Amino acid sequence: MIHEELPPDLPNRRPEILFVDDDPSILRGVERLFRQSHVPWDYAFAGGADEALALLAGRAFDAMISDVRMPGRDGFELLSLLRNSAAWADLPIVMLTGMDNPNLKNQALDLGATDLLNKPVNRDDLFARIRSVLQLKRYQDIIKNQNSHLEELVRRRTESLAATRLEMIWRLARAAEYKSNETGNHVIRVGHYAKILAERLGLDSETVEMIFLTSPLHDLGKIGIPDKILMKTGALSAEEWQIMQGHCAIGQELLSRPPSPGRLPELVLALPVRESAEAEENPSLQMAAEIAGCHHEQWAGGGYPRGLRGEEIPLAARIVAVADVYDALRNRRTYKPGLGHVETVALMTQNSGSHFDPDIFAVFLSCQEQFQKIHQRFVE
Question: Catalytic amino acids?
Answer without folding.
Answer: 222
